[in-house]
Write a structure and sequence with these properties.
Blueprint: E1 6-13, H1 24-27, E2 34-35, E3 38-39, H2 42-49, E4 54-61, H3 65-79, E5 83-87, H4 94-100, H5 102-105, E6 112-117, E7 120-122, H6 126-136, E8 140-146, H7 149-152, E9 156-160, E10 167-172, E11 181-190, H8 192-209, H9 228-236, E12 242-246, E13 251-253
Parallel strand pairs: 1-4, 1-6, 4-5, 8-12
Antiparallel strand pairs: 2-3, 6-11, 7-13, 8-11, 9-10
Length: about 260
């Protein structure tokens, strides 16, 4: 088991995101804006570097490649691990982007894929999440944390089994209170995540060719846009596929320069 390779994927978004960082983000992509003396993206990358048997780190977004070229080159040399920027031809959603670049991500035949959002700052207990995931089984394990009921509505709220830690219910930014346990935007998956995303694509194709009243019939996003939260986490909750690891340390989403 110790020889199994893992890879990490960090979602960096694109110029249409990070509007709350203007005017700073006019000239510098949000992930490269300094945070505690280093580019924002540096913190999750440094955390990933500590994972044993890490083969590669991928940054996925739709910024122009030239905007990340210098940083990717320097951080690869500094950490002595391949860091690659993969540019989407258009936004595919967090799950869709993972699937779009699946052949690249699976090049090293990893056993697990970490997925992180670049605007998350926390202690990144990545090895602990992986260890817990191996105990649980299932497709994936997500980092969660308890917050105040007032703050919870800004995030994905979830219900987990207190004993088994299985994800039982997931709702993204619900209008009514569901739980004070929220999604931290840090995950580890087995390669079965690609089958799960492919399953969503197949269901959406069936819906578009044979219109019915499934959950995909009333989507307000393009057919090739697959969201991790609404399209993967919510449907798989309660099916012994997804589990949770509670973060007892600090966690913050970097939404504004302040």
């Amino acid at each position: 088991m110790s020889e199994e390779k893992v890879v990490a994927v960090i979602m960096v978004g694109g110029p249409t995101k990070g509007t709350r960082f203007r005017p700073l983000s006019f000239n510098t992509p949000k992930p490269l804006i300094p945070l505690a003396g280093q580019p924002m993206i540096h913190h999750p990358i440094s955390a990933c570097k500590k994972i044993p048997n890490l083969a590669q780190i991928f940054l996925i977004g739709f910024y122009e490649e030239r905007e990340f070229a210098l940083y990717v080159s320097s951080i690869s040399n500094e950490l002595r691990i391949p860091v690659r920027y993969l540019k989407e031809d258009k936004p595919h959603g967090s799950a869709g982007a993972l699937y779009y670049f699946r052949d690249r991500i699976m090049e090293e035949k990893p056993s697990h894929v970490f997925l992180l959002n670049c605007d998350v700052c926390c202690s990144f207990p990545l090895q602990h999440i992986l260890d817990a995931h191996r105990r649980y089984g299932g497709i994936g394990t997500m980092l969660v944390i308890k917050v105040s009921a007032e703050a919870a509505s800004q995030f994905g709220e979830l219900i987990a089994d207190p004993d088994t830690k299985e994800l039982l219910h997931y709702t993204e930014k619900p209008e009514t209170f569901v739980s004070d346990l929220i999604n931290c935007g840090v995950y580890v998956f087995t390669l079965d995540i690609f089958k799960a995303i492919e399953g969503v694509y197949n269901q959406m194709r069936e819906t578009s060719s044979n219109y019915n009243h499934s959950q995909y019939a009333t989507r307000s996003v393009p057919a090739d846009f697959v969201r991790l939260d609404q399209d993967i986490l919510s449907p798989l909750a309660g099916k012994k596929q997804l589990y949770t690891y509670e973060n007892k340390d600090f966690w913050e989403q970097i939404k504004t320069p302040g």
